[in-house]
Records
---
Amino acid sequence: MRLVVIGGQAAGLSAAARARRIDRGLEILVLEKSQRISFGACGLPYYLEHRVRSLEELSVYTPEYFRRERDIAVRTGVEVAAVAHARRQVALADGEATHYDRLVVATGARVDRAGIEGVERPHVFTLHTPEDATRLRTQLDERPRRAAVIGAGYIGLETAEALRNGGVSAVTIFEATPYVLGRQDAELTRRLSEHLERHGIELRTSSRVTTIEPDRVADVPCELVVLATGVRPNVELAAEAGVELGRTGAIRASDRMETNLNGVYAAGDCAETQHLVSGRAVYLPLGTTANKMGRVAGANAAGARERFEGVTGTTILRVCGLGVAMTGLSEAQARKEGFDPVEVWIDAQDRPRYFGARPTAIHLVADRRSGRLLGGTVMGEEGVAGRINVIATALASQIRLEQFQQLDLAYSPPFAPVWDPLLVAAQQLAKLLN
Ligand code: FAD
């Protein structure tokens, strides 16, 4: 039995490693087009601001490690040009062909440049690959004064902060929709916008950029532009082989991560998944999800029967000292999904005043009809990950607000007030719900 994996990052390597654990005798080959594997792109914004000194720090494993420790062959600098599923063969760009019994497609995603003129100009950058980061960091060394970032997703926000920390004195973020972070939530947008403004970053929502001029974007003069317009799944190779795509444009895979082609699995940023609250297929490309999908794809490709149930869409980032995290649905998204949502935002303290309380904001959404919790947001300097993880866990367990209100959350003055802000928000929401 021979397993071939296309793509040597989060999803592909998780698949290969898990397959090896399930089947000691399986022959496993990973094909990666770039020169690096196991690269943590999530660290790139911190490389820009020199917190991460070299790109080598962001690569966790080497091909040699996989060969020696896992008996997995990894070839870098090898691009798969086509998949001939009837013959169970992948054709490489250099003309070589190689056989597979099982195939995992983990080809990831690329920056979406569609619809913008001038993206090829020399002062336009992206932040997706190590090469992108090197180019951008070199440019930052030239000390540009004004920069524009296009897109207020998490990469756009993290990059804007990295530019400020890298010495750019004025940064403007252009966002086509009225919202930040792909979350239809006006209050989140307002709070984040005010925070950014306090740190010298201007956020312009409902501002679709169609053209990048040599010296400006819209009326904002700038020497540097970063495109952070989101990503598109790399699906062409799979689609040409007959793999079905879903409504989102990413590869459709079952909860076993198997595609419509027998023995062909897909995982990571090239594939869609289920949203556990809406029950819909969604495209939410994140490293944490790519690892889990890859693990399940690899297990099943090696003969096990494992499932990946889906995600609640948990996202977290830190921007200019503020932690921002969200999971599940916003009120507007919940309404679109047919729920009857009620929401609350509260401003609280993250611990007792005598222990150095800091402000924290909590947002919760619940369904009036079922009482089920549907989503939440946490903003604060500390404790943000812990609190959003409680909400994410509650969403995955489909608990009702009544139960959420009584969760046995930790209390001791260094960590939290006696009534955790999550419970205070839940109590407020319960009043509205009744
Ligand atoms: P990729 O990492 O895109 O890997 C796919 C690989 O397939 C690539 O190496 C590519 O070269 C290879 N490939 C494609 N086509 C072929 C072919 N034909 N032949 C051979 N090889 C091929 N996620 C989080 O969860 N949290 C974060 O904080 C976070 N921060 C991020 C910050 C930045 C700046 C970026 C860019 C991403 C961040 N992510 C984060 C997202 C995360 O990095 C991705 O979700 C993750 O890398 C996806 O892994 P993947 O294996 O599916 O795809």
---
Amino acid sequence: MAKIAINIATGSLQKEEIIVGIDLGTTNSLVAIIHPDTRQPIALKEHNSSSLVPSVIHFDEYGNVTVGEAAKSFLVTQPQNTIFSAKRLMGKSYNDIKDNASFFSYKVIDDSNQTMVKVQAGNKFYTPAELSSFILKELKQRAEHILKTPVNKAVITVPAYFNDAQRQATRDAGKLAGLDVLRIVNEPTAASLAYGLGLHKEEEKTIAVYDLGGGTFDISILKISNGIFEVLSTNGDTYLGGDDIDNSIVKYWLQQAGINEDELKVNKEFAQGIRLQAEAAKIYLSSNDIFETTFNGDALSITKKIFEGLIQPLVDKTIVCSSNALKDAGLTKTAIDVVVMVGGSTRVPLVKESISNFFGKAVNDTVNPDEVVALGAAIQADILAGNNKDVLLLDITPLSLGIETMGGLMDVMIARNSKIPNKASRQYTTQKDGQSGMKISVYQGERDMVNDNRKLAEFNLSNIPAMPAGMAKVEVSFLINADGILVVKAKELRSGIEQSIEVKAQQDLTDAELEKMLLDSITHAKEDIATRALVEARTEGEQLLETTEKFIQKNTTHLSKEEFMQTAAAMQALQLSLTMNDKDLIHTKVEELNNISRPYAERIMDAAISYAMRGKTI
Ligand code: AMP
């Protein structure tokens, strides 16, 4: 079910906004959602077009920005103003990238080695986060256009090896694009989720995610247990991918035609044209034995056998990386339960076969390798939205958690929609002299009275040493761990005695029950507030009766008969008001009793003080 939110302006209920999953890729980016009807993840695309948006940004001389396929055509004609592979610059200083600076055909500012890189396009400077934000903005707009609804929240994926600076830059990019980035998720984790891995708590698996994209290769070894993904190791080559496959075909053709490779540098249009032909050949050879075409008047052809011979060294490189990743994880090939294929280049049959041979098992390749990461991000988004409650990765509390306090009131310790893991603590005290036990009742729900909420657990903190009322300090703490298990602890701080209990917070509530509990809290808000006020007034009245009673018992001799009579009458009136459902009446009676007792209470206190101070010098 969807979370319920209250529209402050209209006071009406509305389904929580959609949360999209975004694969912000080096070559291509895309958005996915969980289809509200089929509950299946789907990549968003306009009618008759691809879900993939090339991660390319073009700036024209007037500062207009174009992103995607339209920008891609400027790669050849205006390389200085057309930015690709901005992801490679995220969270990097010039020092980090200077060895590969020639890779970028646009201007990467190198005036400082330490600070983060900037890119110049025209007379403007952009940080990598700003550049990525243009891509995210485009994705957001596309999604809004397709879904006909505002899109403000997203889960964005990053490579598993991204460090904090790179992750932060990705978050910043999201913010700049007007997106609330609820979670940064590792790409291999997202890909695993798209294959349904990690969606069941009992599942324990070791997964190899092999990701060969357009320009990068990553291999990640993950372990999932208790619904938590752990990255055991990552390896790869940040400059190895489909582009290299295309280049190897281009080189082969140039050799065949006796054309010097320098021609590619001199004639950009020619270079671009022949690269596109090579890419077409590569794709065609996935399901055919020979590719033939004419380009610039020349006949070009390549057989599958030759193609495979050309790319074998590239594939071998990925296998060396995979082997190193296993070594770093301290595992052998046989320990891998599942191999997941990610990235467009894994469509090449030789790649799939080689990897399958290496790991000794069939690879998982049924999900579109270009979309699999975004689809997994959408699944993660859905989990965050609380729509997929079978899943453990749930990381917010769907309902408030609290304890019962005096008069049956709900004292919320961890509010609904709080992040998990989480902890909170609060101090309470005893109500009665010599009180030796304190009952801690744990409830879940949004109502003010615990009786309207769900009781999750109850325990007794016993053996509190005898102390006057209000002296004991009982600290109650709530701790929800990453598994959604709530541990409630109560500790009397003066004596150190403590007691705790473990509660499973999301105990078998159905979606309908959860929804009803939230709706109830809203429809009953007014009466709940009134009830709370009444209970608080009653508690105050009861406490005043108790302390007054004690006071007059102790000081009978110091009270005049009249004072005694008046007090008794006021106490009786207050007692009576407590049985009625009128908080204002209770407050009035409390006030009256206070007015009667105040003068003699002050008199008696003053006397006691001056008695205590007699004979003492200050
Ligand atoms: P990605 O970065 O995951 O979007 O992968 C893009 C790369 O996949 C590009 O190099 C594409 O040429 C390549 N690619 C897409 N489709 C195929 C295919 N059918 N066979 C081989 N490579 C492909």
